[in-house]
Amino acid sequence: VPVRPSPELVAVSQDRLAEKRLFRSLGIATAPFDDEVRPDAAAIVKTRRGGYDGRGQVRTHDAASRAAALAELPEPIVEGVVTFRRELSVIAARASDGTVVTYPLVANHHGGGILRRSLAPAPDVGPQMQDEAVSIARRVLERFGSVGVVAVELFDVGGRLVANEFAPRVHNSGHWTIEGAETSQFEQHVRAVLGLPLGSCAARGLSAMVNLIGTEPDAAAVLAVPGAHLHRYGKAPRPGRKLGHVTVTAESPEQLVDRLAKLDVALAT
Amino acid sequence: VPVRPSPELVAVSQDRLAEKRLFRSLGIATAPFDDEVRPDAAAIVKTRRGGYDGRGQVRTHDAASRAAALAELPEPIVEGVVTFRRELSVIAARASDGTVVTYPLVANHHGGGILRRSLAPAPDVGPQMQDEAVSIARRVLERFGSVGVVAVELFDVGGRLVANEFAPRVHNSGHWTIEGAETSQFEQHVRAVLGLPLGSCAARGLSAMVNLIGTEPDAAAVLAVPGAHLHRYGKAPRPGRKLGHVTVTAESPEQLVDRLAKLDVALAT
């Protein structure tokens, strides 16, 4: 019995073309890509390998700009532009006995290609959408019998889920689980790869995860916010670099909004 | 501003005689000791320094056995036997700005002089008893202007609290706070000694902390229990040694009882 993330799944996750083909082979919707995108249509040209946080990709708006991007980027893939309502992600874990557990869908807010904050559980998710997310994560994990955590980034397109990409590991959009879920994504991954039973993915109240990007905050100001939990990664400050995150827990949407407002003030000082 | 546990408080905590005198000087009830205990009465003779987990103490039942214990133990102190309803503890933290925060009282169950399990919050604690515990912890922390966490072990004697001993640090009976409280006692201590604001001590549902003593459990069996969180300390097994603990979280007393029953089975396998 393999007790690790599947090497095949890891390889696929590192190649945007293989990733899209995997999704399609599993019956999971993706953005149109390559020949499916009209030559003069708006598109995003991405490198197949190595891009992250918005790096290694260029938005194009006509045939000329696309040709320039295709010439510039190594191993390019063309993606059609998807008009989505919002960005979501789902995190799931598969145990060595085949059990799959899935966290509630999370709503992600990006800025400049970088994840800025996640709300967990995502608001306005019905059982049908959560079930679809569970099914998507399960198909990805089961394709190669992978063990451990996987995160799938999704677009909400009129209530249907379109897969963007996946990561065969713990994910930034799952950091809220440390305080906000019964079992954290990190503990879940460790349980899985040690061949142990998985824990509950149930949320404990509401959470918001706010990334600390580029500069360190005033720790005292952050920790004065009720329900705030500060995580610093000990990394050197650099523009655009994730240096840590704050998870804010709350009992109700009203309380979460109030605490996030306080946090915004704390981060601006 | 001192930003550390008071050295005076640490010194007092290491000497059972100084500890009792401190409690008394702060108006906190203790067991009778030394000359207050009739020569032939049942008593516990303890070393003033270095005892823990029931070590360094002898129960005596008459003048002869007491004389033998006094001759045997270094720097002995005689404590009268207190008839108590149950054992409780309170954990509090003091920030460098003087703010004191206090966790809910916890009910502790010992066996063979060693803490076996804690229930948090302790059942059947009214606001008056919690207030008395808060006041006791506050007086101890404020005596020398200490910063950081303190734990006070208490006897519930007919609804009044009698102090047994205190520890100027995080405490075994506070390990439940990792999953069971908004802010763990460890984070609370770190916040305090870094001069940062303290977090909420509110409980998140109900918790039970079960010490793993002497032998390692079957991790898979433990983690199959809903709400169970396993903490291993990486210590070599030895009879009577605390090798780790399990915290079980639950939403209701009924659920906690059910999960603890499952855990007992898991620990017996």
Provide a descriptive summary of the structure in words.
The structure is a homodimer of 269-residue chains. Chain A has 8 helices and 12 strands. The longest helix of chain A has 17 residues. In chain A, a hairpin with a 2-residue loop joins strand 6 and strand 7. Chain A has 269 residues and is α+β, with helices and mostly antiparallel strands. In chain A, the strands form 2 sheets. In chain A, strands 4, 5, 6, 7, 8, 9, 10, 11 and 12 form a 9-stranded antiparallel sheet that branches.
Properties at a glance:
homodimer; 269 residues; alpha+beta; 9-stranded antiparallel sheet; 12 strands; 29% helix; globular
Question: Helices, strands, pairings?
Answer:
2 copies of one chain form a homodimer.
Chain A lengths: L6 H7 L2 H10 L17 E5 L9 E4 L2 H10 L3 E5 L5 E9 L5 E3 L3 E6 L2 E7 L6 H17 L4 E10 L2 E8 L9 H4 L4 H9 L12 E8 L5 H5 L4 E5 L9 E9 L2 H16 L1
Antiparallel strand pairs in A: 1-2, 1-3, 4-5, 4-6, 4-8, 6-7, 7-10, 8-9, 10-12, 11-12
Over the alpha carbons, how many angstroms does the gyration radius of chain A reach?
Answer: 19 Å
H-E string of chain A: HHEEHEEEEEHEEHHEHEEH
Mean pLDDT over the residues of chain A? 95
Overall geometry of chain A comes to globular
End-to-end Cα distance of chain A, whole Å, is 52 Å
Assign a percent range to the helix content of chain A.
25-40%
Strand content of chain A: 25-35%
**Helix count, DSSP H or I runs of 4 or more residues of chain A:** 8
Total beta strand runs of chain A: 12
Describe the sheet with the most strands of chain A: 9 strands, antiparallel
Question: Using CB atoms under 8 Å apart, which protein chain pair has the greatest interface?
Answer: A-B, 20 and 21 residues
What would you call the structural class of chain A? alpha+beta
Oligomer: homodimer
Low-confidence stretches of chain A: none
